[in-house]
Design goal:
- The chain is mainly alpha-helical and 178 residues long.
- It has one domain.
- α1 packs across α3.
- The protein is elongated.
């Protein structure tokens, strides 16, 4: 009978141990389930982030591609007008330098006396006239520049109104390209 009680105790102890093992296994299974869910959430976040990054990169690449298609066409449309403006700009720089020389240049007449007052007045009148002539030339050059600039803007507008350019520009706007 002692041996029967011993076996019963042994079986009860094994049952308790098995119950503890089952509980531990159930806890481990639950922990692994939670860890799996956590990893799945992280994976989803990475996939989503990767998709966002890929979409952003694709948009940036397309914007760059659009830029390489649009910018050379606009540059080519501007080029003849910029070439027409170059000598005018050079002339404007030259005239502005002459104008500055008159206004900032040293006066020949630092000591005005009764004997040289009429010469000083003549020189001042000559400089004033020269200044006015230079300003008039500058104004004419600015008007020439404005006309060329308007022609250039019209040429660019005409280019932008072509079906090909309209499609490229519309796509660039749609993608919010800078």
């Amino acid at each position: 009978m002692d041996s029967l009680f011993g076996r019963v105790e042994n079986l009860e102890s094994q049952q308790v141990k098995t119950g503890e093992d089952v509980t531990a296994a159930q806890l481990e299974i639950e922990r692994l389930r939670l860890e799996n869910d956590n990893l799945r959430l992280k994976t989803d976040a990475v996939i989503s982030s990767t998709a966002d990054i890929r979409a952003k990169n694709d948009r940036q690449n397309r914007c760059a591609e659009l830029g390489t298609q649009i910018n050379p066409k606009i540059k080519a449309a501007k080029e003849p007008y910029l070439q027409m403006m170059a000598p005018i700009l050079e002339e404007l720089r030259k005239l502005q330098g002459e104008k500055n020389q008159i206004t900032k240049g040293p006066s020949k007449y630092t000591n005005v006396t009764a004997e040289n007052i009429s010469a000083v007045e003549e020189e001042m009148a000559r400089q004033k006239q020269l200044f006015k002539e230079i300003e008039d030339k500058i104004q004419v050059k600015y008007e020439e520049m404005n006309k060329i600039n308007l022609e250039m803007e019209r040429a660019i507008q005409n280019l932008q109104n072509t079906p090909e350019m309209k499609a490229l520009i519309d796509e660039a706007y749609r993608l919010s390209c800078a």
